[in-house]
Design brief:
The protein is of the alpha+beta class and 418 residues long. The protein folds into three domains: 2-159, no CATH class; 164-241; 267-416, Histidine kinase-like ATPase, C-terminal domain (Heat Shock Protein 90, 2-Layer Sandwich), CATH 3.30.565.10. The protein has helices at residues 2-56, 66-76, 105-113, 123-137, 161-232, 235-260, 272-284, 287-290, 310-328, 382-393; strands at 83-87, 91-96, 141-144, 151-157, 268-270, 295-299, 306-308, 334-341, 347-354, 397-404, 408-416. The strands form three sheets. The protein has a five-stranded mixed β-sheet. Strands 2-1-4-3 form a four-stranded antiparallel β-sheet. It has a two-stranded antiparallel ribbon with strand order 5-7. Helix 1 runs antiparallel to helix 5 (161-232), helix 5 packs antiparallel against helix 6 and helix 9 packs antiparallel against helix 10.
Length: 418
């Protein structure tokens, strides 16, 4: 069983690792390809702008030449880039796809006379600010007079709308991949839980079926013994039959417990201290046979009732006590059960502490996993079923508080009050 559990754990580890690294490599590849496309888009944008600048090389602009300005505006309509054309040391004379109103006749005089270092507020101040922003992103394209070396003007261009949208594409893809990963992980988790529940339900139903036949036969034999005792009045035999009745009642409870695993149990107000007293009393009468020199103690104060199922709660504490007794090994020891209530009185806390061999650190994360066991025999379902009863059926919590090799282990069961 330990080997089977270890193999299953290794398979789950490699599957999770494959899923994680596979998706990580896929995301990295998509991001690299997206950046490659963005670089190509930027190169194409620069080439288009340079071609536009070469076209302007053949045009000698004057600020008040309306015909050439109109020609420039018509050419700029064919591009979707945010463009600003400046001449005479940086005076904007045409622009397109920028958040500034187009030029009017009154602006021509302003362009001719304005101070480039201190442009008038409004339209031209905004244009000069945009020129500086564009030049930080893309190097401006010079416009030269044909046959001359001096620069006539500059073409300043910003980021195209398509390129701006592509910048968000890696983030969108990353978000989609993370969403996919989250859905996939949750789906695998739900599938795992569904499979575990199917195993639990099948095992529980089969166990209830197997216990039903001998239970019915034992109840019949018990009734025959009672009839003989009543006629012979054998006190010693009566005591033995009484204990047989207790054990038969325990078998009946076991059958009912397993049958309830596959369905939602009915909950009612329960005195948790009374449940613990019955459970401890049952083990006290059997300690001479189980662990002759060991003791089980219960320390409890008055606590408010909780909303639960008595038989399932008895099963919870029986499992924890049995685990404690097994942890004692061949030596004697002690199991202490301590009940306390939160000051807010919203939870009842039950600590189950043993002085056994403790749980190795490597096993502490696996003790509640179905199928894991360190015993030579066993299904490895005791603590898994116990946690399910506490957390799913009673909306409580079961956790390992502490464990030290050779010194013992402490479990905490927290249950909400009714």
């Amino acid at each position: 069983m330990r080997l089977l559990s270890s193999n299953r754990g290794n398979i789950r580890f490699w599957l999770k690792s494959y899923l994680f690294f596979g998706v990580a490599i896929l995301i990295l590849g998509v991001l690299i390809y997206s950046n490659y496309l963005m670089d190509r888009m930027k190169q194409q944008t620069t080439a288009t702008t340079r071609l536009f600048g070469r076209f302007l090389d053949n045009v000698h602009f004057e600020v008040d030449d309306q015909g050439k300005l109109a020609l420039l505006q018509e050419v700029m309509k064919e591009t979707n880039l945010p463009i600003i054309v400046t001449v005479f040391g940086g005076r904007p004379i045409a622009w397109r796809h920028v958040p500034v109103n187009q030029m009017t006749d009154e602006d021509l005089e302003v362009i001719r006379t304005m101070d480039l270092n201190n442009p008038p507020p409004g339209k031209f101040a905004e244009l000069m600010e945009l020129v500086r922003e564009y030049d930080k992103v893309n190097r401006p394209i010079p416009i030269r007079v044909v046959g001359m070396s001096e620069i006539q003007g500059w073409v300043h261009f910003g980021v195209s709308p398509l390129e701006r949208e592509l910048r968000y594409m890696p983030l969108i893809q990353l978000g989609l991949f993370l969403l996919f990963m989250g859905v996939a992980i949750q789906g695998l988790r739900n599938l795992k839980i569904s499979e575990e529940r199917s195993i639990w339900v099948g095992m529980a139903k089969e166990t209830a079926h197997q216990l039903g036949t001998p239970l019915s036969a034992l109840m019949g034999w018990t009734q025959l013994l009672k009839d003989k005792i009543e006629s012979g009045r054998t006190q010693e035999l009566a005591a033995s039959v009484q204990e047989m009745g207790v054990d038969l009642d325990r078998l009946r409870k076991v059958t009912e417990r397993f049958s309830k695993i596959g369905s939602r149990p009915e909950l009612a107000e329960v005195n948790i201290v009374a449940v613990l007293e019955r459970t401890v009393s049952y083990f006290h009468r059997r300690l001479p046979r189980l662990k002759a020199k060991s003791i089980i103690s219960l320390v409890a104060n008055d606590c408010p009732p909780i909303l639960g199922n008595e038989e399932l709660l008895e099963w919870v504490f029986e499992n924890l006590i049995k685990n404690g007794l097994d942890a004692l090994g061949d030596t004697s020891g002690a199991i202490e059960i301590r009940v306390s209530c939160r000051k807010s009185r919203k939870h009842v806390e039950v600590y189950v502490k043993d002085t056994g061999r403790g749980i190795p650190p490597a096993h502490r994360e696996q003790i509640f996993r179905p199928g894991f066991t360190t015993k030579p025999r066993g299904w490895g379902l005791g603590l898994a079923l116990t946690r399910r009863i506490v957390e799913e059926y009673h909306q409580g919590a079961l956790r390992l508080v502490e464990s030290h090799p050779g010194k013992g282990t402490t479990f905490l069961v927290r249950l909400p009050v009714a």
